Amino acid sequence: MNLKIAVLAGDGIGPEIMKQGVAVLNEVADKFNHKFTYTEALCGAHAIDAVGDPFPEDTFNVCMDADAVLFAAVGDPKFDNNPSAKVRPEQGLLAMRKKLGLFANVRPVATFECLLHKSPLKDELLKGADFVVIRELTGGMYFGEKYQDNDKAYDTDIYTRPEIERILKVAFDTAMKRNKHLTVVDKANVLASSRLWRLIAKEMETSYPEVNTDYMFIDNASMRVLTEPTFFDVIVTENTFGDILTDETSCITGSMGLQPSASLGEHTPLFEPVHGSWPQATGKNIANPIAQILSAAMLLEHFGLNTEGQLIRKAVNASLDANVRTPEIQVENGNTYGTTEVGKWIADYIKNN
């Protein structure tokens, strides 16, 4: 298969982990006789510094011309610590989602048997946890009308029926492919927007009679995800709730450096690790590249290259079992491996197996 891949490394640790993700893709291409063509493009703080725009038109055109986007992370403290900054790296991420029509973020949450001890949760709560969170990406407070002065500020949490229907369809269809259990997470006891979500979900239930659909307020869901993670199969929720809930799930895997995701919608699909740019680790060769590498696996599987994706997953599991791990998940007194060493080990495994 020939694939054109837009490579957006972004800021902080992004370029370091992206290098490992591309290296793994190259080994897959060599092994299975595929041709992957990469086009690098600016985004985030680097793009602001270069052209004054966190998601330049040139980058948008590269993404639209590609079959898929492999993205790393954006963010820089010089913008975080400047509340008066008019342009921020994260605005590029929101613009990318909006302009590419990426309304559905699909984030798998699963445990690694050898890393259960790294989670703050008890082993007996974690074993068998395997679910997917589907987060709406282009609506809600992040994109609604905003206002701020010295005495008042607001963000409008607005959703329309078509926006809700399309993300719920992704969720119901995903549930049909898994264990046919869907949990709709909202705050319908307080928010009008959530009541519309629940109304539409109730209507759509009749089209999916095989799916066991239940409803949960976000505060309850935030607790149950950590105290009863095996209850869930597919979770669907709106943008703000999903942002918080999906970061919370890192407590299940033991590290945000292990979680990949896909963002799907109207145009080019995008695949990215869920963690941020971690600027404090930039250049230190300590960032975990596994989430980026697993995002590459999701990219391949999106195009039906399931054998290739599974080989990447097998290589990742083998590296963890061999204790080839970055510092945040390494066993006590284990050898020291950095970003580059972990990525090379996984790439070599793919080459030799």
Report on the structure:
The protein has 353 residues and is of the alpha/beta class. It has helices at residues 14-32, 45-51, 57-65, 77-80, 89-99, 123-126, 161-177, 192-205, 218-227, 239-248, 250-253, 290-302, 306-321, 339-352; strands at residues 2-10, 35-40, 68-73, 104-110, 130-136, 146-148, 153-155, 181-186, 212-217, 234-237, 260-264, 270-273. Strand 1 (2-10), helix 1 and strand 2 (35-40) form a beta-alpha-beta unit. It is globular, with a radius of gyration of 20 Å. It starts with a strand and ends with a helix.
Highlighted features:
353 residues; alpha/beta; Isopropylmalate Dehydrogenase; 14 helices
Instruction: Describe the global form.
Output: globular
Query: In angstroms, what separates the terminal alpha carbons?
Result: 20 Å
What is the fourth-level CATH superfamily of the largest domain?
A: Isopropylmalate Dehydrogenase
Name of the CATH first level of the largest domain: Alpha Beta
Number of helices: 14
CATH topology of the largest domain: Isopropylmalate Dehydrogenase
Strand content: 15-25%
Largest sheet: 10 strands, mixed
Residue-averaged pLDDT? 92
Q: How many strands appear in the DSSP assignment? A: 12
CATH architecture descriptor of the largest domain: 3-Layer(aba) Sandwich
Radius of gyration: 20 Å
Provide the structure class: alpha/beta
Residue share in helices? 40-55%
Low-confidence stretches: none
From N to C, what is the helix and strand string? EHEHHEHHEHEEEHEHEHEHHEEHHH
**Domain unit count:** 2
Question: Order of strands across the widest beta sheet?
Answer: 2-1-3-12-11-4-5-10-8-9
